[in-house]
Every structure is written in C-alpha cells, then in structure tokens.
Write a structure and sequence with these properties.
Chain A has about 210 residues and is an alpha/beta fold. Chain A has nine helices and eleven strands. Helices cover about 35% and strands about 30% of the residues of chain B. In chain B, the strands form three sheets. In chain B, strands 1-5-6-11-10-9-7-8 form an eight-stranded mixed beta sheet. Classes of the chains: A alpha/beta (about 210), B alpha+beta (about 325).
C-alpha cells in the first residue's frame, strides 16, 4: 500500500478525483471530514498544503500531490517526479498599473508569501529588495502601501483586477506535481514508477 | 559506548582492507563554499569550521601510481537556521586511477561493515555521471547546463524537463526513459549507442557486485541519479536504510585537482554517523563488559582479577561501592 498525502483547500477535489483514476476503492469513500481514506492501492492522507512537503520529506507518507509553487518555495529533500494535469496557476509579479518594474536604484518592497522564490528570482535583478512576508491576502501590500509590488500565484487574475492591480510579469507556470520521499523512491521504486507510467498515459490523454 | 563501539567496528573492517586513518584540521583557511558555513575572522583572515572532510583531504594528497587507501572520522559543522549543527562524518577513499576493482572494493567494504553491525535491510542506488555528461553535451548554454545539473541533484525532474526545453524529441524521449527507467519494459529502448553503452556499463557493474556477494534486491540502477559536487566522474551511489527518512550517505568515482595542481582520481564513500546510530540495533553494539563493584580500599586486591579479565579481551571496569548509592 502506497501512502499518499493530498492537499486540503482548492486542489483537494481534483487530487482525489485524480487518484480515483488509479484506485477504484477510493470511489466508495465519502470524503466528509476524514483525514485518512483507505483505498485498495493507496492510503490517502489529507494535509495542509504548506505542511505536505514536510510529511513527504519525513517519510510519514511515500508520495504527495502538491503545487509546484510550494515545492520551489520550501526546497525540501524530495523527488519531484512528474507534473499532473490540474492545479494550473502562474507565479507572477503584480502591482498597480503606474508602478514600474525598473528599479532605478531604489529599494523595491515586495509583499509575498513566497520569500525564497522571490529572493531567488528577483534579488539579483534589482540588487536591493525588501521582502515583506505575508501569510495571505498579499494584495493588501500595495493597497496599504507597505509594498510596491507583490509576488503571488494567480489562477484567473480576478482578485488582482478587483483590487486594481495588474500582472507585470509571469515568473513561472505551476501545476500540481507528484513528489516522493527519497527513501520510499528507492524501496518502492517499481510500484512508484509503475504508477508514474499510468500517470504519463493519463497525461498524454489530457494533452 | 554505542558510538565508540560502532567506530571500532568500522575502523577494524577498514584496517583489514589496508586503509589508514588520516586526520585533518577542523579549521579551514581556504573556503570553497559559503552557504551554511560558520566563519571566524582573525587579523583580517577568514577561517571556517569544516563543513565536510572528503574534499579537504583530497586537496592535500599527492597522486602516485600505487593505490592509496585512507579513512577518516571527525566532526563537521554547518549552520541550520541560527543553530550550529555538529555531526560526525565517517568516510573512506581509495585513490587510484579509474578501474572497476577500485569502485567495487569501496562498495564491498560498505557491505561488510553492514554485515559487521547487523544491518541487512539496505539499498544501494547506482548511477553513472557519464550518462548525463552525454545528455548535457547537447545543451550549449553553460548557465543552463549548470541549472539543469542542479535540478538533477535536487531530483526535480519536472523543472529539468521544463528548463531543458528540448526541441530534439529523440533526446527528450531518452531523458524520460532515464527518469522513469524501471517503468519501461520492452518499450524502453535507448536509441543513442553511446547512451546505451553507459547504461549497459551501469547494469554490468551491478551484475559484478551481485557476483561478488551482494543480494540482487539490495542494488538498484537509477540512471537519473546525480550527486552534488561536479568532481564526480563515473559510477556514483547513494545508500538507504529501511527505516530512514533520507539517504545515509553516498559517494562515487571522482577526479579532483589537489593543491599541487595534479589530477587526483579516486572512489569514496562518506556518511554522517548520527544517521546510522539512529537506526542500528542497539544489542549488537553491547561490548562484553565486567563491572567490579567493590569498596574503594579493595581496589589493589581486585586489580589482579581485572588484569586477568582484560588479558582475555574483556573490558573490566572498577566501580567504588558506596553504600546507599550502589547495592
């Protein structure tokens, strides 16, 4: 039995539906408020998205389904096996239309939940940036004038538009990914790669 | 006692193979990496606590035509957030020109050490850096090659595929076959003959290890394996224990330039002792110890009895009997 963690929140239904393609028993399970669902092939655990990579790294579970944005941000020691056909979004720089991306030597204040990604991708670009770490509602950064720009994920861009902000640049595209613990990947290599093979077939159908 | 016993067993095994212990300073003057290092500044000179041992040893070794066998045990330091993390690194190196027996010898010692300490559930994952040298040769942009190598080390296959942005579909298909090697059966055919040769070499290396006593299920071939440090060249490997969360350690074949500007070839293995200590079964490490619990004034009378026990190889420890403390 492979232990898989899936994220609660916006991706939960999609992740569960995705796993149901490979484990019929999961169809019978009612989600309710259960945090553990027993299938025939998988034992599924529901985890908070930001905790999920840690569960995989610590080998509490063998596999995890999580957005690439979280994987990049946390840089946990896991195997990022394959991208999955759901959970699409974009990591963007956004701000008010009148704010320029040219630093002009001034310090640029960026509000974000993604401190590492922002540092990695933007520190060398402007030299001087100040990262303001927010845990949610990042759009408030420019609105309350505590930041010039924000770095965040967007799906449709509606929240940005509703708040008068616009996308300045797409940093990268993200989707759900299948990750594995490194030791599980060695010990369950055949099982995990056979699952990946089925996922690839499904991905091909979706494309 | 447990830690010392483990080191004693490893030291004994290495000595039986003709390996000698080397010791190097804990403070480094020549700093090769900056991240997570612990620095000191003295009279304008920067010193750092060593973050690992292997590389520093290699710098000081002279290359000659006969094999050099060495091992080391010692503390290493790094910053983990704001905490100073101290671990104990153990490793062994066989310095000699690239040869099959050299690589096999280092791996056989791992097997024998595991037998000595009673570990039978382990997996050694085998890779070959030449596979990726071949693939990355097709990418001309050096910066891109560097970041692709990093994705391989991090095992981020998704980012590798995205960043490589390969227009050559044949090459892309070969890369997918490498990443998902064990999932392809008859359909996993490597079209390029050089690539095929490197994969075949890796598989024949595994077969040789099986011939020399490794159980087949203890060895897996993962052509996608990559290790940090660019000095690796040839066979590389990672070692996993069943109940661990991460790899115990790893190593492989390398080419490194020493401080005399000579090329040094070798094959080695290193691991952090704490990771092994967490997992070994405590019972095998118990030494044969006899405690002599007597009143202090009887030490001289007891000394002769303890001496006889020690001659038999039994650890003998005098403990003064203090009524009210020890019964």
């Amino acid at each position: 039995m492979i232990r898989v963690a899936i994220p609660t929140g916006r991706m939960l239904e999609q992740a569960l539906d995705f796993l149901r393609n490979f484990d019929d028993r999961l169809l019978d399970e009612e989600k309710g408020r259960k945090l553990r669902i027993h299938g025939e092939r998988f034992e599924v655990f529901l985890a908070k998205p930001w905790d999920l990579p840690l569960y995989v790294e610590e080998r509490v579970v063998d596999l995890g389904i999580i957005g690439r944005d979280v994987i990049w941000e946390q840089e946990k020691n896991v195997v990022n096996l394959i991208s999955l056909p759901f959970g699409y979004c974009k990591m963007v720089i956004a701000g008010y239309p009148y704010v320029s991306l040219k630093g002009n030597g001034k310090e640029i204040r960026i509000a974000t939940k993604y401190e590492n990604i922002t540092k990695k991708l933007l520190e060398n670009r402007w030299g001087k940036i100040k990262i303001i770490k927010l845990n949610g509602s990042v759009e408030l950064g420019p609105i309350l004038n505590i930041s010039d720009l924000i770095v965040d994920i967007v799906e449709t861009g509606k929240t940005l538009r509703d708040n008068g902000l616009e996308v300045k640049e797409v940093l990268f595209e993200s989707s759900a990914c299948l990750i594995s613990n490194v030791v599980s990947f060695a010990y369950l290599r055949k099982e995990i790669l056979s699952f990946v093979k089925e996922v690839r077939k499904l991905n091909d159908k979706c494309n | 006692m447990k830690r010392e016993s483990l080191e004693k067993i490893i030291r004994r095994r290495l000595e039986l193979w003709g390996y000698n212990e080397v010791r190097i300073p804990i403070l480094y003057e020549d700093i090769w990496g900056k991240e997570n290092l612990i620095y000191f500044e003295k009279n304008g000179k920067f010193l750092a606590l060593r973050p690992e041992i292997t590389r520093e040893i290699l710098k000081s070794i002279r290359y000659d035509k006969i094999p050099k066998r060495m091992f080391y045990m010692g503390p290493i330091f790094k910053l983990n957030g704001r905490e100073v993390e101290e671990n104990y690194q153990i490793g062994w190196e066989l310095i000699y020109k690239p040869s099959l027996w050299r690589d096999v010898e280092v791996l056989l010692i791992i097997k024998e050490v595991f037998e000595d300490i009673g570990i039978d559930d382990y997996i050694i994952e085998l890779g070959n850096t030449k596979i990726w040298d071949f693939i990355l040769r097709f990418i001309k942009d050096e910066e891109k090659v560097k970041s692709l190598r990093e994705f391989l080390v991090k095992r981020d296959y998704v980012s590798f595929l995205e960043k490589s942005d390969l227009s050559n579909s044949e090459l892309k298909s070969e890369i997918l076959n490498l990443f998902y090697y064990d999932s392809c059966d008859e359909d996993c055919v490597f079209l390029n003959s050089s690539l095929r040769d490197e994969i075949n070499f890796l598989n024949s290396f595994k077969k040789l290890l099986v011939k020399l006593g490794f159980k087949e299920d203890k060895l897996i071939v993962n052509p996608a394996l990559m290790r940090p440090y660019e000095y690796y060249d040839g066979i590389i490997f990672e070692v996993y224990l069943k109940n661990s969360k991460t790899s115990l350690g790893g190593g492989g074949s390398y080419i490194e330039r020493n401080k005399y500007n000579e090329l040094l070839y070798g094959f080695g293995f290193a691991f952090v002792e704490e990771k092994l200590l967490e997992l070994v079964n405590g019972t095998f490490l118990e030494e044969n110890i006899r405690y002599f619990v007597y009143p202090e004034e009887q030490f001289i009378r007891i000394y002769e009895d303890m001496r006889k026990e020690r001659e038999k190889g039994i650890i003998s420890v005098f403990i003064p009997k203090d009524e009210g403390v020890l019964e």
